[in-house]
Design a protein that fits this description.
Blueprint (H helix, E strand, L loop, with lengths): L4 E7 L3 E8 L4 E8 L11 E2 L1 H20 L6 E8 L5 E3 L9 E2 L8 H11 L1 H8 L8 H11 L1 H6 L2 E3 L1 H10 L3 E3 H7 L13 H7 L7 E3 L4 E4 L2 H7 L6 E3 L2 E2 H8 L7 E6 L3 E7 L9 E4 L6 E6 L4 H11 L8 H12 L10 E3 L17 E3 L7 H24 L8 E5 L6 H11 L3 E4 L5 H12 L17 E5 L3 H34 L1
């Protein structure tokens, strides 16, 4: 009889998910809760950390224990992941001092990005980041708090990410994994020593205000009595340091070696390609990956599932009496007969500005080519194609580097349930997309990392994860469609640069009105 279990819980943009696995990697129970973003003003996106992050964690852990009917003492370790480049100031009792400022979708710190670039110079910024500063970096967010909310800044005991916050609530220890520390907080942590860079910390924050760096599978601490009462987990249960949601989801698909790539179809798109060494490109991001001695190139859009939800809530409002599941199916059914290219429509999916490859918070969404013959089905399919063009644009940038190879592409997230969309993306990029049989996502990766931390038989090292990954479906590209999409891709690649100045003028007008 199996008597070892591992729980993984992930917090995302619009929902949190948890899963319990046994020592063979089998899913025993899972649970999902939903929350929403707070958008108090343009370019500001936030979460209520106490309710959205900690509240979700407590609800999920109790629900999973109830569903599985197992004794919590049999859960040997807890794995956690959450939104990566977010910023939450807390006091000495780990109480949030304000709503959490979210990842790159929040672009409030434009002035701070300019300020930091002027202070250090473009050459030094490029040495640190391999690219210009952008909205996905935490340092400008901390400086924004310092510049705009000085009282909160003075009260801040720690600046945390979502993962660090949840771990602290569970264990009373403030830690962050090496991957997030060196990527999102760059350059506050010195890479070689993993210690806080004292010179920089005086400008941004003190070294004492930052969490201690550890590896993602290190033990962060153990469930406290108070946390046990709130979560239902047994006091003394080990908690690993954890990591960000995208990295954990990549690991859940078996993306654990160079040449393997991951596409995360969530509220946004996140892309991770494992590489043997760091590859600098100002249009993308690069960092040391979660797995020791492995690097990655990564990229991210601001909209994907969130754009689909926009269509659901606004363009398909007349179908709102249906359940979300039925409504999504209606949307899929409507586009099933729409031909490739949406009869001459191209969507620029920058409905919330954009991260890579343009790194422009003032970019605007655009539906280009509208004619009287077009219906909402054409528009919706064009949106799905537009996100596919964005993915392909970034894959082409990655492959432009001579020492970068893409051997296989895996995908997970809520978007993979849309089979028409997956085939569209496969056709656009001209490559196979592999969908694992278990597509729970980051929480599954968290649970497996918890098993690795506990040195469980069959989970001794990261490469062992591939033994537990089974293929659910493979989407193969229709190369005839791929050649047709290439013509649309050329137009897509040009539209932003042709309209950029007008998008920026609109942004300026909005700020004045």
């Amino acid at each position: 009889m199996n008597n070892s279990y591992f729980i993984g819980i992930d917090t995302g943009t619009n929902s949190s998910k948890g899963v319990l696995i046994d020592s063979k990697g089998n899913v025993v129970a899972e649970h999902t809760t939903e929350h929403s973003m707070i958008n108090p003003q343009p370019k500001h996106y936030e979460h209520d950390a106490e309710n959205d992050w900690w509240g979700d964690f407590c609800d999920i852990s109790k629900a999973i224990i109830n569903k599985s009917k197992i004794n919590p003492k049999l859960i040997k370790s807890v794995g956690i992941s959450a939104l990566g480049a977010d910023c939450l100031p807390v006091d000495e009792n780990c109480r949030p001092l304000r709503n959490a400022i979210l990842y790159g979708i929040d672009a409030r710190a434009e002035k701070e990005i300019i300020q930091l670039t002027e202070i250090f110079g473009e050459e030094q910024i490029n040495r640190w980041y391999g690219r210009p500063l952008c909205s996905s970096d935490i340092v400008p967010k901390i400086l924004w708090i310092k510049n705009n909310e000085p009282d909160i800044y003075k009260q801040t005991y720690k600046f945390l990410t979502a993962t660090s916050y949840i771990v602290a609530k569970l264990t009373n220890n403030y830690v962050i994994d090496r991957f997030l520390a060196l990527a999102s907080f760059n350059p506050l942590y010195a890479k070689k020593s993993s210690k806080v860079n004292e010179t920089l910390s005086k400008l941004i924050c003190t070294s004492d205000q930052l969490a201690e760096i550890k590896e993602s599978t290190d033990i962060a601490g153990y469930i406290s009595r108070e946390a046990s009462n709130q979560t239902g987990l047994a006091q003394g249960t080990a908690v690993i340091v954890g990591t960000d949601d995208s990295g954990a989801e990549a690991i859940s698909c078996g993306v654990v070696s160079a040449g393997k790539m991951f596409l995360q179809f969530g509220s946004s798109i996140y892309m991770i390609l494992c590489t043997e060494k760091l590859v600098d490109d100002p249009r993308l991001w690069r960092e040391d990956f979660i797995i020791p001695n492995l690097c990655d190139i990564s990229a991210g859009t601001n909209t994907a599932g969130s754009l689909i939800n926009w269509y659901k809530d606004n363009i398909y409002k007349d179908k709102s009496s249906k359940s979300d599941v039925d409504l999504y199916q209606t949307m899929i059914d409507e586009i099933s007969e729409i031909e490739l290219g949406s009869q001459g429509l191209i969507t620029l999916p920058y409905f919330a500005g954009e991260r890579t490859p343009i790194n422009d918070p003032n970019a605007r969404g655009l539906i280009f080519g509208l004619l009287l013959k077009h219906t909402r089905a054409h528009m919706y399919k064009s949106a799905l194609e537009g996100i596919g063009f964005s993915i392909n644009q970034q894959i082409k940038i990655m492959e432009s580097h001579n020492d970068v190879n893409i051997d296989s592409i895996y995908a997970a997230g809520g978007g993979v349930k849309n089979e028409i969309w997956m085939q569209i993306v496969s056709d656009i990029i001209g490559k196979k997309i592999i969908i694992p049989s278990v597509t729970i996502g980051a929480s599954y990766g968290d649970a497996m990392m918890a098993a690795i931390s506990a040195c469980t038989e069959g989970f001794e090292k990261f490469s062992d994860i591939t033994k537990h990954i089974k293929i659910g479906k493979i989407y193969k590209p229709n190369m005839e469609n791929h050649l047709k999409y290439k013509k649309f891709q050329k137009i897509y690649d040009s539209i932003y640069f042709s309209t950029k100045k007008y998008a920026h003028k609109l942004s300026e007008l909005e700020s004045y009105l």
